[in-house]
Amino acid sequence: MTEPPTAAPPSLWFGATPIGPGHTPFVIAEMSGNHNQSLDRALAIVEAAAAAGAHGLKLQTYTPDTLTLDCDRPDFMVSGSDTPWAGRRLYDLYAEAMTPWDWHAPLFERARALGMIPLSTPFDDTAVDLLESLDSAVYKIASFETNHLPLLRRVAATGKPVIMSTGMATAGEIERAVATLRDGGCRDIVLLKCTSTYPATPENTNIRTIPHMRAQFGCEVGLSDHTHGLGVAVAGVALGATVIEKHFTLSRADGGVDSTFSMEPAEMAALVAETERAWQALGAVSYGPTEAEVASRRFRRSLYIARDCPAGHVLTAEDVRIVRPGHGLEPAALDDVLGLPLARAVARGEPLRYALFKPGSDA
User: What is the DSSP letter of 139?
Assistant: First the structure.
């Protein structure tokens, strides 16, 4: 990741990677259930994420039995028409989407070998135990788990940094979750502004919350983005997001539980490039020419002699033009020099300077 020459001290670290406003946004490719129950495909997703420049590769660690009950009652069915999973049993959906636990080690190993930080979202204590055995450098808490305080305490006890999505959560619920993590021993927290709809719409994303969230909770803040495209994520970086998470697949045409709102490799590469470009453009509050602009000042307008004039000629408006380049007096000096006598003959195209007037004049 590119660093500016005067990068600010990091707010926190994911392993050896600094996270904070002075550093390139950390982009996470979320595999979720896009492996479609194929380890070979899962490994290919890891490789594609690395090739696209993603900095982190995220899994989800659960089984259907750690999330729900094997039950046909209406409470355990996905309802609503605004979701790709409408009509599915929760148990069946989670069985299809889960990443088998024996895949975690090879997926973590492949991600690390390709220079990415592997991480996962645990959903119960046994998942945390598995991730600890793999020496996970950072943990993710899903939006739907922000009220699962026993899980937050278990994750906090690892002492690792925690990224927590905040979809659906009220300010009070976020405050309670952050306090639970801090009281449990977690000091490094990144909150992600998130809209828990799949996909989300830009109009329902409210990323102006990002700087407010940072001030309100004293945490680094990023964006878990379920919208299509990369515009929302780039705008999030402009508002201070230091971590960006997007679902990722090899091809939406391949289908899968999360495919409809997932990025493809070329889109992920564009996301990495454009979020870094947005971050680079933030810079600092600055007025006046930058070092790169100094040479361009010569193309500003200035005062030039518009026609040949003899020595002693009293300068008139017809004798002067406000033109490019900028080697003459500034245009603001025009009223000061009109009516003054020239100390010597001047030729058309000479820059107008005070030295052209007779000594003792009002120039």
Answer: E
Q: Which residue blocks in 291-349 are alpha helix, DSSP H?
A: 334-337
- Cβ(241)–Cβ(11) below 8 Å: no
pTM of the model: 0.86
DSSP string, 221-247: EEEE--SSSSHHHHHHHHTT--EEEEE
Question: Using CA of residue 141, residue 147, residue 151, residue 155, what is the dihedral sign?
Answer: positive
Q: In whole angstroms, what is the distance from residue 143 CA to residue 196 CA?
A: 7
Q: What is the pLDDT of residue 55?
A: 98
- Band of pLDDT at residue 78, cut at 50, 70 and 90: confident
Query: CA 348, CA 243: separation in Å to the nearest integer?
Result: 59
Distance between CA atoms of 197 and 149, rounded to whole angstroms? 23
Structure tokens at 265: 């490799």
Contact 52, 42 (CB under 8 A): no
Tokens 């979720």 label which residue? Answer: 32
What's 171's DSSP letter? H
Looking at the structure, do residues 278 and 298 belong to the same domain, yes or no? no
Q: What is the mean pLDDT of residues 6-23?
A: 85
Nearest one of 200, 197, 50 to 115, comparing CA atoms: 50
Number of folded domains that form the chain? 2
Alpha-carbon gap, residue 260 to 189, rounded angstroms:
30
Q: Which domain holds residue 298?
A: 294-356
Tokens of 85: 């999973």
Reduced to 3 states (helix: H, G, I; strand: E, B; else coil), residue 140 is strand
Q: How do residues 210-226 score in pLDDT, each as one tens digit?
A: 999 999 999 999 999 99
**Do 168 and 227 reside in the same domain of the chain?**
yes
C-beta neighbour count of 8 within 10 angstroms: 11
